[in-house]
Design goal:
The protein is an alpha/beta fold and about 350 residues long. It folds into two domains: about 100 residues, Aspartate Aminotransferase, domain 1; about 230 residues, Aspartate Aminotransferase, domain 2 (3-Layer(aba) Sandwich). The protein is built from twelve helices and eleven strands. Strands 2-8-7-6-5-3-4 form a seven-stranded mixed sheet, with helices on both faces. Strand 6, helix 7 and strand 7 form a beta-alpha-beta unit. The protein is globular and about 60 Å long. It starts with 6 loop residues before the first strand and ends with a helix.
């Protein structure tokens, strides 16, 4: 343990911490904290539009991208109600569970399609089948790269599906880990929005990962203007707080920090991959700031033992029970984790 504090490698946060530029921006904004955040919100939307090459009316800011998920679900459920149709959400499992929680809270049906048994890829064939066989509106929630596996979905197959899907099939593409992707075959869904590939494609992104602003709660959705207008009808007013907006702008303008953030994660990934190779523990090819690796033992016991050694690691992700999701913290944190993991091997625990 460092300073008698737990090392938190369980929530895919960025342990590097916020940039100094973001901290300064927040401090300097305190004098106008009594004002509504209209101008910073507008400036952030303009910055995002410039970065991605889209119009400002193609962006919906969220209180974290999770708010964009909730609003999209509510918008489509309401659309189905008005059109006297049924509504369902189709998801792979395991995946980021926020969408499922929101769907459950509004009484929407959720169809779960397990990832493939061979390599834990999204089972696109059965995901599509679940939507094709449903008489109503289907929302396909897909993380790409996926959480917790850290892997990407075949661009050619996913693109073909999105471009040919019927009008009642909507795609919510969660690209929280976009900046970490190194696979040259990968295409961002934002490019598909710009190409007009589908009117039913909504892409979401967050400032919680590379930008290290998880606590500021800033995210966004990008789609065509009509879809964004519909989603905005279910977003809360002034949902991006002043601190979050100015911190996000400052971070986007801080190329040196963004480069350091990416380099730090890549260094930590290399350290963990070497350690896992040394121990003969399988892991999936990560395109994110976490790695999904084999433990060869009882998962709950492993999680508890790590906590006893001052380290929080990922929770359970059924139906996969013999892998654990490890957030890639700083290299110093990774060195401590590796030492503990190797001590587990010496005891026959992994």
């Amino acid at each position: 343990m460092q300073n008698n504090k737990m090392i938190e490698l369980n929530a895919n946060e960025n342990s590097l911490g916020m940039s100094d530029s973001a901290k300064r921006a927040i401090t300097e904004s305190l004098s106008v904290g009594f004002r509504y955040p209209d101008h910073p919100r507008a400036a952030l939307i303009s910055k995002i539009a410039t970065i991605h090459g889209v119009a400002e009316n193609q962006i919906s800011l969220g209180n974290g991208s999770t708010e964009n998920i909730r609003a999209t679900l509510q918008m489509l459920q309401n659309k189905a109600f008005r059109e006297n149709k049924d509504f369902q959400m189709v998801i792979p499992v395991p995946t980021f569970d926020c969408a499922e929680m929101y769907a459950n809270s509004i009484g929407a049906s959720v169809v779960k399609i397990p990832v493939t048994a061979e390599n834990y890829d999204l089972d696109l064939q059965n995901l599509q089948k679940a939507a094709d066989e449903f008489d109503g509106i289907s929302l396909l929630y897909l993380c790409n790269p996926n959480n917790p596996t850290g892997t990407i979905t075949s661009t050619s197959k996913l693109k073909a599906w999105v471009s040919s899907a019927p009008d009642d099939h909507y795609f919510l593409l969660d690209q929280a880990y976009l900046e970490y992707v190194t696979d040259l075959s990968f295409e961002s869904g934002i490019e598909w929005v710009k190409q007009g590939l589908s009117n039913n494609l909504i892409v979401i992104h967050t400032f919680s990962k590379l930008c290290a602003l998880a606590g500021m709660r800033v995210g966004y959705a990008i789609s065509n203007p009509q879809a964004i207008a519909a989603i905005e009808g279910f977003m809360s007013m002034d949902n991006t707080n002043l601190s979050g907006a100015v911190a996000a702008i400052a971070t986007l303008n801080d190329a040196e920090f963004l480069e350091l953030s990416l380099q730090t994660t890549n260094q930590s990934r290399q350290m963990i991959e070497k350690a896992l190779d040394d121990l003969g523990l399988r892991y999936l090819p990560s395109q994110t700031n976490f790695i999904f690796h084999e433990i060869k033992g009882d998962l709950k016991t492993y999680i508890d033992r790590m906590r006893d050694n001052g380290i929080k690691v990922g929770r359970r992700f059924p139906p996969i029970t013999d892998f654990n999701r490890l957030t890639l913290g700083t290299p110093d944190e990774m060195a401590i984790f590796i030492k503990v993991l190797k001590s587990f091997r010496a005891k026959g625990w992994v």
